[in-house]
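Batch 3, record 17
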Amino acid sequence: MNIQSEPSTKDRILDTAERLFSLSGYHSTSLRAITGEAGVNLAAVNYHFGSKESLLEAVIDRRLTPLNKARLEMLATVDRKARAEGRPPAVRDIMSAFIEPTLSFRESTDGARHFIALLGRAIVEPDDTVKKRFLNQMNPIIELMLEMLARAMPSLPAQALIKRFHFTIGSLFFTMHACCDDSMPERMRLKEPLTEELVNFVTAGMEGR
Amino acid sequence: MNIQSEPSTKDRILDTAERLFSLSGYHSTSLRAITGEAGVNLAAVNYHFGSKESLLEAVIDRRLTPLNKARLEMLATVDRKARAEGRPPAVRDIMSAFIEPTLSFRESTDGARHFIALLGRAIVEPDDTVKKRFLNQMNPIIELMLEMLARAMPSLPAQALIKRFHFTIGSLFFTMHACCDDSMPERMRLKEPLTEELVNFVTAGMEGR
DNA sequence: GTCTATACAGAGATAGAC
DNA sequence: GTCTATCTCTGTATAGAC
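Prediction for the assembled complex:
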């Protein structure tokens, strides 16, 4: 545990891997590129993490654990307030509790920005091990949001709710990935701030017509 | 050009690559797996396509060209009809012209289903060559839709329109990818039909509140 | 405990015989 | 068109230096 000295070998690997995974993708980033740029030996990855896949898991867990904690706390606050006022939670507040922590976390540091772009891709990764790791962390939030949304819109059939929530996830994760993506055509480049527009969009879609 | 005999070496490679790229992802699928399953020699890929990347482009182009033609025709019909009636095109009709051909094409054959799942991932691929190939084909449609949407909602600022269209693309592409994805948790599994719910969702989001 | 050097199997790409 | 041989680069594993 270094307090004010150089980052440890392990942290240098994590930081570099996060950046390169985000920029070039998991499979296209070689361990030699990571260790070369981090200035550590190739075998240090195997020593500290065991494999390239375990390294990716470590990259994900390091940021996703506190981020999901923030999301759950915000959802709990929305729920508590609604119960105290004897009303169902508002769709907009549920959406905000998911979106606002994500996008404001993204603005916090350069590393976080890379990580959020990486996460936006993780949900469509074909690699089962990686995706399951990611989905396991997301499951408690998904369950809580679905339960709260069902209370917010009691007359909406369960299947319709699932579909609309699914579309919502698509909007958010694509935004997480693509908002800092330079390869999109100029006209499609997004400008900040995004939170309010995204909350508006998915709230309108959720509540239907 | 074989009419009623066995598929050619080239077509066998295309069909097998389409299925394996969709199931396991581009980078995780080896040329040995493709050529082995297709029953052709490894070097046949290099001979017919030049490289693994060019093979992916061929897989994309074969299906995306006719699909985009159908989308453009449907958009043109919506536009023509609106002009004939002297009114701006309806947001819902524009959304349908993009979504309906995509999802009904997906239902047409097993190969198409695999292809649509692959496309749903292509838009977040980190590989620049692949993504640019894909975006080049999509650009005329994106431009036409943005132009029609601007006429449909003349009071909406351009930046807000871009953002909402972006969120729409996220919903559709995630649906294309994930609707046949078995690794999602049981509660999030989607059931057909999707077209109407998706059109409702993105129309409501587009039109705002 | 940390880290380095190095060996190994599998990948995509390519040249050239047939 | 097809196939073999071979090149480089990848992820992984291990033996041993400090």
